[in-house]
Amino acid sequence: MDRKHWYEAGLDHVWLPYTQMKVARPPLAVARTEGCRIVLADGRELIDGIASWWTACHGYNHPYLRQAVERQLATMPHVMLGGLVHEQALTLAQRLTGLLPGDLDRVFFSESGSVAVEIAMKMAQQCWINRGEPKRTKFVAFKGGYHGDTMGAMAVSDPDAGMHDAFRGLLPEQVIVDLPSDAASGDALELVLARHAENIAGLIVEPLVQGAGGMHFHDAATLQRLRAVADRCGALLIFDEIFTGFGRTGSMFACEQAGVVPDMVTLSKALSGGTLPLAATVARRSVFEAFWSDDPQRALMHGPTYMGNALACAAANASLDLFEREPRLAQVNGISRQMARELAPCRDLPGVKDVRVKGAIAVIEMQQIGDIHALRARFVEEGVFIRPFGAIIYLTPAFTIESHELSRLTGAIVKVVGEGIAGGPG
Ligand SMILES: Cc1ncc(COP(=O)(O)O)c(C=O)c1O
Is the pLDDT of residue 2 over 90? Predict the structure, then answer.
């Protein structure tokens, strides 16, 4: 089908994400992807700065991933995990638990990050029911946090970060506080917990980098403080590594940099190397043991139809092979240094509030962005795909990006921000 046909025929029937469909500019029609390039249907080629919401860590169409998926497709694309298991899912579960620290030992598969978070929340609540403390139903979550778009995940995301305003008052009430990044916020958290201690099921945080809530960074000490606080009030500590997992912050998992073992971890995005939808909620042995019983009522009643999809698990196993065989973390380091160097001039540009880099994440925080649609289009004119949100322009490229491609991304940012377009009134 030619572009005109599928684009024009389908556009009036699709509902796009995070989009006011009435005023949004028409989306770009993509013909194919290759490495760090997005090839548009009209023949233009864009260097990709986002890696499809941080999933495509090895670049697009990596031949090793493609072959693994093709091999699996020929044998068995999918089989339900109810009463059945298969090699790819079990191998992946074993490998993930081997990579994660401590006794994070049991993997529950699902198909999206939000659902992995819902499952973590259900696991935490039922863990306390099974342990005979049913009043522990609430979660402590943090300003600037984002954990997904389903009801439970929205309830633990920052209500003021702008994503879910329409749902204010409709979500189960949780305790949202500042991250304990200094003595004052640490004391404030202690106070809140002292007040709610026996009602808290768990604390949930994106370790080191809070992504979609504004790309805020915090340090390892903050995570150590959270571990200590959770232990003191007996609550479970959940690390949402859906953004930070698989090398993005410079180590395989962000929790490693803090030396903290959470009670649960959620994973998705780069888990399958950007090929197929897959997510996981990984629990420590003590959490799993709360469900281990002769009583069927104590089982975890959750089971997404496509959980542990064989194609997705094959892709994830192949992605882990690539992390073992290719120097991904060294590449992240190199990207980090290059982005810090090449984006430093932004600090002196008008309207720039902050420039920060962590691992393969670079953030230019503006005082404000006037016309975000115009800014996005301006980047496309420069031959790059960069998707600012709020007051944030950011890069999260594939770890395989070539140095000259990365320079095209940073160069476009320096140029476009320098034009003053970013700070202008909307
Ligand atoms: C930290 C974090 N948690 C959860 C999610 C939700 O994942 P999904 O979009 O796959 O539902 C995201 C997505 O951006 C995320 O960054």
Answer: no
